[in-house]
Amino acid sequence: MADRVHPAPPPLPLSSTPPQHPPTTETTPLQQHPSFARPPPPPPGTYIVQVPKDQVLRVPPPDRARRCKKLAARPARRRALRRACCCACAAAILAVLVAAAFAGAVYLAYRPRAPTFSVTSLSIRGLDAASLLRSSSSSSETLSPRLDAAVRADNGRNAKVGVEYRGSGSVAVSYSGARLAAGPWPAFRQPPRNVTAFAVAMSGRGVRLTEDQATRIAAEQAAGAVPLQVETTVPVRLRFGSVLRTWTVPVRARCDVSVDRLDGDAVVVNRGCRVRVRPLWWWW
Fold first, then answer.
1. CA 13 to chain CA centroid, nearest Å
2. pLDDT below 50 — which residues of the chain?
3. Where does it reside (predicted)?
């Protein structure tokens, strides 16, 4: 088979006009941005030392290394101290709450009450009318009275609580603020719902009454009612069962009594007693 041949296109006619060149435009050089400008050279005699950033932040100078280490460890110590203080405060508050709850539970279970006291009889010597007149008229004459009292301690209000009366207690009798005689309170243990009566021997020395007091006490003795004050200070411990008990706390009692005479066995009339007990602290 023979190939098909296409005729070639005719050539373009030549023109007599010369070829035109593209128009030329004038360009102005771009101004350099200030950020790309080189910094001015340093003045003569000035040097710039560039240190790597990691060395500036992490490697202190040798003379400051110890101080830097101490300052870096200070926040950790402060946090530890703050944590220890918080733990101690929380433990103290918890201990107080536990102690208060325990004391409240013991109080509700046992219902402790303070014992009561009274003076049943009183024997007086050395306060007769003649002795009172001599002491009030003479400045060198003094009184040395002796009193024997029968005291009644009542623990009947406590059904589950016993009372321990410790040593070093005292009983004193006074008239119008002037102490007449004093003696020791005996030490003994009183079970619940118990009433104990005991004798207390009291003595006074160098007692002096004013003329007004001697006149008034003589008039009251003639009327058959001489007011006296019996004051007691006794260290006491309460017992709850056989294990639980309190610290030793002072119990103060003041009883107002009146007697019909100041010589021999007197008839005592109790006018009331006031008992004061300090707050109790429990322990096992």
1. 124
2. 1-2, 280-284
3. Membrane
How far is C-alpha 56 from the geometric centre of its chain's CA atoms? 53
Q: What would the two tokens of residue 143 be?
A: 């009184």
The model's pTM is: 0.62
Contact between 227 and 221 under an 8 Å Cβ cutoff? The reply is: no
Residue type, 109: A
Question: Is-contact 169 233, C-beta < 8 A?
Answer: yes
Of 114, 189, 117, 123, nearest to 151 (Cα)? 117
